[in-house]
Amino acid sequence: MTRLLLCLALGLVPAAHAKDSCVECHSALAAELQKPALLFSKDVHSQHGFSCVDCHGGDRNADDPSGAMDPARGYKGKPARKTVPQLCARCHSDVALMRRYNPRERVDQYAEYQTSVHGKRIAEGDEAAATCIDCHSVHDIRAVKDPLSPVHPLHLPETCARCHADAVHMAKYKIPTNQFAEYRQSVHWEALAKRGDLSAPSCASCHGNHGATPPQVSSVAAVCGSCHALMETLYDKSTHHDVFASMNLGGCVVCHGNHDVKMPATAMLAGPASVCKQCHDADSAEGQTAAGMAAQITKLEASLKSSDAILDVAARSGMEVSEAVLKQRDGREALVKAQVAVHTLDPAAVQQAAGIGLAIAAETRHAGESALKERDFRRFGLIFALIAIALTIAGLWLLVRTIERARPPVVETGRR
């Protein structure tokens, strides 16, 4: 106990249960003056024993406001907006301090922030740029994994959109404000918000969080490749890589977009929704190549779908087709490989993968058809057996009737 009191006196650990005149006073006030005290009970700092004075300074043990807010006792009041990052960094850049509360927490957030577009603008005196409190909140800061945190993966896009979707706020930066609206139409949003996949990409996945900076043209493929590694490797070897680089185009986004990333489909290669026609006429050699790759993939998709249908009928009929159903997985894997091979721009690579899938689809379809033939044979055999049994029963019945008719009548003798 003596050691704990000594540590508290030296300020080595926060006093979780010590007197806090700031909270006591503000809790008795009204409206906006009361709000910080009410919110702070939910704050992760409060739960670890920190208090108002750790950010605002002053003396929380004082019994009167003049003592609690005495500049001589370190009271700073509301920190200037441009000083907020340095204020947070006093603790969050302190390795020894953070190790006591969360050893896995990174301590380079402030260093990263200084390299970000937000940090650079704040350093230049632009106080409209984002600081820690714009993303994490102020008096009710929650852990990132807390579902109520504004930086929880499910809420992060909306948090970024508070500034980036505000046309008035972004006007002086001449930055579009449709990113969030487009993102909500993307396959990434579908995975994150509708399927609850917290690993799905959001703003920070591509732009970074504390070191937020728009990806440069030269690094777009690397950003996408952090998740789509195989596609990045294939793209780097394709003719598109050098062509797009020479035209200062951002790799993946040329075909897939950036915020409004749709689910890849064969329709992207040929037809009205083709992205290839942005650069190539449908009748050109490149357009024909794209159409050929699309045809291969479409044929494989149709073959696998047809096999699935036959196997489903066979399975519902009670036939043993589990091995063929399992084999279909290899076919679908070949379909994925064919779709991925499009990034090579090599029709032979697409045809090779599609060919493997088509062979598997033909094999499984044959297995399904054989199972259905066996089913029909069994049904025919069952019907034949039933007919034979019925005829046998009928024959026996007729035989019995014939015997009964041929039997001489029984003469009854009279009694005496």
Indicate the topology.
Blueprint: H1 2-10, H2 21-27, H3 31-40, H4 44-47, H5 53-56, H6 65-68, H7 84-92, H8 95-101, H9 109-115, H10 117-123, H11 132-136, H12 156-164, H13 167-170, H14 179-183, H15 187-194, H16 203-207, H17 220-225, H18 229-236, H19 239-246, H20 252-256, H21 285-316, H22 322-341, H23 347-406
Q: Any descriptors?
A:
mainly alpha; Butyryl-CoA Dehydrogenase, subunit A, domain 3; 23 helices; 58% helix
Please tell me about this protein's structure.
By secondary structure, the protein is an all-alpha fold. Among the domains are: about 100 residues, no CATH class; about 50 residues, no CATH class; about 120 residues, Butyryl-CoA Dehydrogenase, subunit A, domain 3. The protein has 23 helices and no strands. The N terminus is likely disordered.
- Spatial extent as radius of gyration: 37 Å
CATH architecture of the domain at 285-404: Up-down Bundle
CATH class of the domain at 285-404: Mainly Alpha
User: End-to-end span in angstroms?
Assistant: 128 Å
pLDDT < 50 runs, ≥5 residues: 1-13
**What is the arithmetic mean of pLDDT?**
90
Shape: elongated
Instruction: Compute the number of strand runs.
Output: 0
User: Structural class, judged by helices and strands?
Assistant: mainly alpha
Helical residue percent band? 55-70%
Q: Under CATH, the topology of the domain at 285-404 is which?
A: Butyryl-CoA Dehydrogenase, subunit A, domain 3
Give helix and strand order, one letter per element, not per position.
HHHHHHHHHHHHHHHHHHHHHHH
The major sheet is characterized as:
none
- Please work out how many helical segments DSSP would assign: 23
